[in-house]
Task: structure prediction
Amino acid sequence: MPPILFIFILFNFVDLFKLAKYPFMAEAKEWVKEQKVNIEEILFDELYERARQRGIERVKQALEKGIIYDTPLINDVDCAMEIFSYPIARMLVVAVESDYLLRRYALAEAKRAYENMKNEEEDFISYLAKELGVEVNGEKIHFADYLKYAPTWDMKWKLVNRELKNGYVILSKNEVARLIQEAIRKKIYSELSYIFAPPEVKKVFRNEIIAIKSRIAFKDKSVKMKEVKADYFPPCIKSLVSAAKSGINVPHVGRFTMVTFLNAIGMSIDEILKIFSSSPDFNEEKTRYQIEHITGRISSTVYAPPKCDTIRTWGLCYPDEYCRGIKHPLFYYRRRRK
Ligand code: SF4
Result:
């Protein structure tokens, strides 16, 4: 039996309870290594049944709820099981062989970390940020990291709407946590791409893998796409789509308008992604994440396309004869389809 009952303190603020809450931390990996538990024990030993069940629960919650909920942690054994459940969940996710699940799981783990970070001291948040390569100083974040992790398609997060001081962007504690959430999501997702699930994993979790695969297939069917008629796009959208396809850099508000509109008329994520693929700064992973976020595939909000008035103030409105009396680009499309 591994020595899981000792009190583990690496730093003043990183103990076993912390590692259970943030099992993606390098210290948690180190701790697992130190326990010298092999894969057979993890997968078959009764001692780890609780960790296996929690691992399954992590994946199910990621898929169904989009977030992983905390579990009560009373003692060191609770923490140890929670920490072990993380590599188990990762192996299960990889064994399902679905990029959709990889992305959804990475985001769900990151969201859980965000919820926990809101209750942490600044010192710990700065420490965690440093481990992720993010330069945080209290409630300030280096502007380069801000640009890397802020959801800048949202007006609230645009750098021009933020206070900048000596190269740092001033934020609230929760906003710092929100940016670290994105760094965690990226880290987990990129690690998952390099993990290999041993064949035994597929045997042990055979039933769960089948159930998860059919759930994913069901979800895919539930977002079955409608036929899209590009000829009936309003001129504002036509111009944005044509700019993106020609590799012209479309401003954030333009991207937002385009994605929300195309999603509302039933275009698939892959088709929307294809439109952006000629952009000079195209990054498939980043763009897919933004599209999935805006369209509510991996978030709780499906953003609505902006009204004509808003598009006009952004300088993206080029009305034609069908725009007369139109207040929303979706009305234009529906009217022309009829
Ligand atoms: S009036 Fe509305 S639909 Fe027409 S181009 Fe302007 S924003 Fe688009």
Observations:
- Residues 232 and 335 are 9 Å apart (CA to CA).
